[in-house]
Every structure is written in C-alpha cells, then in structure tokens.
Design goal:
The complex is a heterodimer.
Chain A: E1 7-11, E2 33-38, E3 47-51, H1 58-73, E4 77-80, H2 86-96, E5 101-104, H3 118-126, E6 130-133, H4 145-156, E7 159-162, H5 171-180, E8 184-187, H6 198-205, E9 209-210, H7 214-225, E10 227-228, E11 231-233, H8 242-249, H9 254-261, H10 265-277, E12 281-283, E13 289-291, H11 293-298, E14 302-305, E15 310-311, H12 318-323
Parallel strand pairs in A: 3-4, 3-7, 4-5, 5-6, 7-8, 8-9
Antiparallel strand pairs in A: 1-2, 2-6, 10-15, 11-14, 12-13
Helix pairs in contact in A: 1-2, 1-7, 4-5, 9-10
Chain B: H1 11-23, E1 27-30, H2 37-47, H3 53-65, H4 71-74, E2 80-81, H5 89-93, E3 94-95, E4 100-101, H6 103-106, E5 111-114, H7 122-126, H8 129-134, E6 136-141, E7 144-149, E8 153-158, H9 177-188, E9 197-200, H10 206-211, H11 218-239, H12 247-260, H13 264-280, H14 288-296
Parallel strand pairs in B: 1-8, 1-9, 2-5, 5-8
Antiparallel strand pairs in B: 3-4, 6-7
C-alpha cells in the first residue's frame, strides 16, 4: 500500500480542482470530491484524453500508441481510463515516450482495475502523473461507476481522441459526453467493413474530426494547445505485398483473403504463416488475421522524432491562466 | 451417406480434416454455432481409409458387448460417436457393473467427436490421456482386468467464446474480453498435447449456401487420404518414423519457430503435421511450404 502522503482529496473549492469538471451538468452535477493518488499538480497540465475500445484490433492498438506517444512528445499529459486495449496502450506509449499520464479509475483511486493494467496504474504515479477517481478510497469497480468515470475522462481533456471503437462499446458513452460538454472529438477512421470501427466511423459521419496520420495529429495538437514537436519525414522501408496490403485494409480470415486476392487457399495460408513468423501479421481471437501493431507503427510514412515539447505560439492553457 | 460436398464454403476446415485423417492427428475446430462443425465432423469417417476385415471384427465385437447395433459396421462404415458433454468419466472410458466399454471403445476404428469441448468435465477429459496413448483401456476390478481397444480419431469442437458469436459478422459477441481469454484458455485443458491441429471455422457466406456452391467432395478428399496413408506406410517401412528435414528447410524452420515462439512440444507437433502434408503430396522431403502450412494449423492455446 503506498504511503498516505501520496493520497490527496481535492474538494470543489480547492484551487487544484480542474475547472474543466465544472462543465459537467449531469444529474449529479460536478463531482464534489476528487480522490487523487500521486502528483495532483498534473491536473493543471494541458490534458488530452485518449480512449478506445477494450476489445481492440492491432490497428486500434497501433493508433492508440501513436496518439499516446505523439501527445507525450508534444508535452501533453494523457488522460485515459486504464482499461485493457486502447486505453492502456495509449497510456503505456505516453509513459514510454517519457510523458505523464492520468488514469481516471472506475474504482477507488487506490485500487487497480483491471489487474492486467497494474503496470499502467503504477507507472502513472511513479512517473509524475496520478490516478484519479470520484469514488471513495477502496471502492470496488461497479458497472454504474464506469459511466460517471467516462464523463470525467471526457470533461478533463480539452480534446478527446478515439482510437477505435465499435458502436456498442463503452467508449461511445465517453464520446457522447464529450460532445455534450462541447469538447473537440477526433477519431481515427477504420475500414468501413471492420465491425471494430463502426463507432469511430459513425462519429466521423456525424461530424467528429479525423486523425488521418501523424501529421494530422500534430496539427490537431498545435491548433488546440499551441504545442508541437520537431519531426523529420522519411518513408517507411517495408516489405509490402498484396497479402499484407489487403490485411491492412481489413483484417480477414484466410478463406476470405484467398477469395479476394484470387489465389489458391493453400498458397494464402502458407504466405500468412510466413508473415506471422516474421511478426508482421497476427491471428485475432476470432480467427481473422491482421497486421501487427508493430508493423503498422513502422509503416507510418513519417516519424523520426528530433525534439519534444517545443512551443510554437504562446497559447495559454486554461490551467495556467487560472493559477495566475 | 453424408458427403463433404454438402458442406459449403469450408475449404480450410476440409483441408485440416484431410490432414488429420491421413496422419491420425487429433483436431480441434473452433467456430460460432451453426457454422458446420458437427457436419464436418460427421463426414470425417467417410474419408478415412476403408475398414479392413480384422478392424471390422474388432469394432463389431466391442459394439456387440455393449449391446449396440453392428449392422453399419458390418457394411464397412466406421463408427462415429458424439457423446454429450454431460458424460461421466465412466461413460467415456468404460466401467460400471458388469463392466461395459465406454464411448472411446465404441469409437474404436472410427471417430470420437467431442462437441463443446470446454464444457466436458475436466476429470473425464483427463481420463482420455492414457487411452489415447496406449489405444487400449484397462479397467482393474477385483475379479480381474478388463481390456477394451480404443483406437480412434479424436475430433473436438468449441465455440470461440462463451456466447459463441465472437468474430461472427452477423451477431454481436456480448462477452467481456477477460472471459473470452479465460474460455479460450480452457480449450487447451488436459487434451492440449493430444491435439495437433487447430482450425478456425467461420459461418459460411449465405449466398454460397443458397447457390449450393460445392467445394471438395468426399471422393476427392478420400483419394488424397488414401494416397497419403499409402505413401506414409511405404516411407515408414523404408526409413522409420523419424522426420528428417533437408538442411535449407531446417534453417528456415528454426527461424520460423523463433518468430512464432514455438515450444519444444510445438516444434514436434508442427514437424509431424508437416510430414503428413508432404505425405499427402507423396513427397519424400518436407518442404518449406509444408512447414508454413503446418504452422498455420498449430494450436493457438498458450502453454
């Protein structure tokens, strides 16, 4: 159990209480008290929320990782829910890039849920970020707490990035809350045939912003926060063949792939197996094959990072303005 | 007689069953309900090599002890047993008073089909290990030892997740991801080292079913199995059962094994399956392509 000194309760009158949460006007109103484990000061940082479905494909994970890494490189603090899949992938990428992250827990801030994300909860605290919860200390995770939690994630970030979500995932409730709170919502588009992307594609259809790649995310961050990072562009040097290009477009089963490429089934499964051994494709739990997130991350057209946290125009964040 | 051409749009599964029939490998099919796993399994006896006279007598003997009809076996049809998953250990391997042969022995020279594999009691599955190894069940009682033959082909089937609809384009899976991985972990269970082939079976495309598009038939697949079995027995008589790889194939395989993080047992299994694939093609040497294909059918369960 971490030291008591690490814990802090922030009431609404407290200067550290994020102003952004005052926008919450659900039936409970803004939470009266925040329970914070770790460095509470980071609540005043420029915050960006990155979320996505728990059941993510390697594509969704790669997008989350890209968003988490770039946000951290721009000097933003990443807010996420710490769930399996996209949330924890984004948080890990941000931590890996030396950034700070805030985990908004659905249980008490001193509990860990899900246990598969224990490292994210621990590193969030040890790397200068924090775990935040509106539940009391030691509260167990309950179904209904996650809806409240999602609204807090939506409110905290000035921008909400959604890496991948189907229409029925919990991510959708966060997106709805963000729209009601008038936060900017940006989604990574996915294949229109992928059931895991119906939610994000649907949001784009309804007017959400699009993240079309690294540069596009850089633009989103510089427009909203006035922060940027220096990059050098260089084309990815990658083995690309018809099989893997078809899988990048849409993860498929071997039979489907053979039919689409017009090749023999035996040839296709042999190619898939070779690509799997090279770590370029992997098998999803439902039997489809998809490019691995490592492959997708490499294949991004630009990406050598030279510096981080460079400021462009001086745009004050809300937190800074308030503290002065 | 059921025929493989009745099963539409499942060429990958048919390929896996052909390999299983040729090399006598255990096979696990994973797919959503209604995708044709049971249909596929029921057709496996039709592509197994024809029943020899001695084998037929043995299977008839077991059936007559158990009081089961023997007419079909007398006609040369291999037995197909599909016990329900509520089956007890005694019902599976034999027992009772007086001692009766269990499902494994009734499946002698035929196919034992375990549908909904994760639903079977763990102790029942555990009791299968020895019979699978020895091809014989021994039941020791005060009045002596009963021996029943049980030389069967193991076919198992399972849903991809507890609700069954994971990866089905027409249905939404309602299982939380944690339960899916727990369920898939149970697929391995006590039989994991007795099942050489894993194949994912998807729901067939409706259009192909309505059009009645035919894939490979029993006649075509049976011919592959027959040729493969014949070639394998000729090869084994000449050089023994060991699988030897040409040096360049060996180098390639060790690279693949590294990439896929195969365990020692996994390597052994891939080699055996690759050998069977080469047998079906009547080739003396295992090629790189055989290895690649065998890797795709490798069990996906961790551990």
């Amino acid at each position: 159990m971490p030291a008591e000194a690490n814990r802090r309760e922030i009431a609404r009158e407290d200067p550290l209480y994020p102003q952004a949460l005052e926008d919450l006007d659900s039936k409970d109103g803004p939470p009266e008290r925040l329970h914070v484990l770790g460095n509470a000061d980071c609540l005043g940082d420029p915050l960006i929320s990155i979320i996505g479905a728990r059941r993510a494909t390697p594509y969704g994970l790669a997008v989350s990782e890209m968003c988490g890494r770039i946000s951290a490189e721009c000097g933003l603090t990443v807010v996420s829910g710490g769930a399996i899949g996209c949330d924890s992938a984004a948080a890990r990428a941000a931590l890996g890039a030396g950034g700070r992250t805030i985990v908004v827990a659905g249980c008490g801030a001193d509990e860990v849920y899900p246990s598969a994300s224990r490292d994210v909860f621990e590193r969030a605290v040890s790397q200068g970020g924090c775990v935040v919860s509106i539940e009391r200390w030691g509260a167990p995770p309950m179904r209904y707490t996650f809806l409240r939690r999602n609204a807090v994630i939506a409110a905290l970030g000035k921008v909400l990035l959604i890496a991948e979500a189907s229409r029925r995932s919990g991510t959708f409730s966060t997106a709805t809350a963000a729209v009601q709170l008038q936060r900017s919502v940006f989604c990574a588009p996915g294949s229109i045939f992928s059931p895991n992307s119906t939610g994000t594609n649907g949001l784009i259809e309804q007017g959400a912003g699009i993240i079309a790649g690294e540069e596009s995310l850089d633009v989103v961050i510089s427009m909203n926060y006035g922060l940027t990072r220096a990059t050098l562009s260089g084309a990815g040097d990658l083995e690309q063949n018809a099989t893997i290009l078809a899988l990048v477009a849409s993860p498929s089963r071997p039979e489907e792939l053979a039919w689409r490429l017009g090749t023999e089934l035996l040839t296709t499964i042999r190619t898939l197996s070779e690509l799997e051994a090279k770590g370029k494709v992997c098998r999803l739990p439902d039997g489809r094959y998809s490019p691995t997130s490592a492959y997708l991350a490499q294949s991004l057209p630009s990406g050598i990072v030279m510096g981080k946290g460079l400021r462009t125009g001086r745009v004050e964040s809300e937190g800074e303005a308030r503290r002065r | 007689m059921p025929d493989f051409s009745d099963v539409v749009d499942q060429e990958l599964a048919k390929r896996a069953l052909t390999i299983a029939a040729t090399g006598h490998h255990g096979i696990l099919m994973v797919g959503p309900p209604g995708c044709g796993k049971t249909m596929l399994a029921r057709r496996l006896p039709t592509i197994l090599p024809p029943l020899g006279d001695e084998d037929r007598l043995e299977a008839m003997l077991v059936h007559s002890i158990a009081g089961e009809p023997t007419a079909d076996i007398a006609r040369g049809v291999r037995p197909f047993r599909a016990p329900h998953h509520s089956l007890s250990m005694g019902g599976l391997v034999g027992g009772g008073r007086p001692v009766m042969p269990g499902e494994v022995s009734l499946a002698d020279k035929g196919v034992l089909f375990l549908d909904e594999l994760p639903e079977f009691a763990t102790n029942a599955l555990q009791s299968l290990r020895q019979p699978l190894e020895d091809k014989e069940v021994r039941i020791v009682r005060v009045d002596g030892v009963y021996r029943f033959p049980c030389d069967f082909q193991l076919v198992a089937a399972a849903n991809p997740c507890p609700c069954g609809y994971l990866g089905d384009p027409c249905h939404q899976c309602t299982c939380p991801p944690g339960r899916v991985s727990a369920y898939q972990g149970r697929l391995g269970g006590p039989l994991k080292d007795r099942i050489d082939l894993h194949v994912d079976v998807a729901r067939p495309v409706a259009r192909k079913v309505i059009e009645g598009q035919e894939g490979s038939s029993t006649a075509a697949l049976g011919e592959l199995v027959r040729a493969g079995v014949e070639f394998a027995s000729w090869r084994e008589a000449r050089e023994g059962e060991d699988v030897r790889l040409p040096p360049e194939v060996e180098a390639h395989f060790s690279e693949m094994a590294e990439g896929l993080a195969l365990t020692g047992r996994g390597i052994d299994r891939v080699l055996r399956v690759a050998r069977t694939i080469a047998d079906i093609d009547r080739r003396e040497d295992v090629s790189v392509q055989d290895i690649a294909e065998a890797c795709l059918f490798r069990p996906k369960v961790k551990g």
